[in-house]
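INTERNAL AUDIT FORM
Audit reference: QA-55
Scope: verify that the stored structure record matches its stored sequence.
Auditor: D.O.
Record contents follow.
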Amino acid sequence: MRVPESKVIEIKEWLKPKPEDDRIEHLDLKSIQIHTQLKIPYPLESVAAGFPSPAQDYTEDHIDLNEYLIQNPIATFVLRVNSLSMKNAGIEVGDQILIDRSLQAEHGDIVLALINNEFTVKRLMKEKQQGQKDKIWLKAENPDYPNIYPHSDEQIIIWGVVTCILKKLK
């Protein structure tokens, strides 16, 4: 079949297989259990990502990652991500995310949502409707995955707000 050169890229994109929606029924959530406290020293000054400052040898403060990362231990859980639907938000397959159930989700937050008894991690979008309730939908941060616009008989339940991405670089 002959295709006009101006349409080649568009047709290749159309022919690419689209991934299925990444909703899952069962989650392997792990609750947070703080057993130890580890204070990591850090310098009082900030440093640009470049040549290290000799002043970094002088630390006067400490940070406890438990306190820094977790606001409410009873309501915080860890979940391993198994989809690329949030790739452009920095969340990739194998990353672990912290989810806090005690936080109120706002427009633009990344959330763990329940829709039709299936869980998904997406960005919460709220659109103001004149004289009506806000229109709520879930945005995938990867154009290869579909956004989720609930039908009239579907309800989105926000299970928790993603507060942190745990990603090992090495």
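Auditor finding: record pair retrieved intact. The two ends are 47 Å apart (CA to CA).
Action required: none
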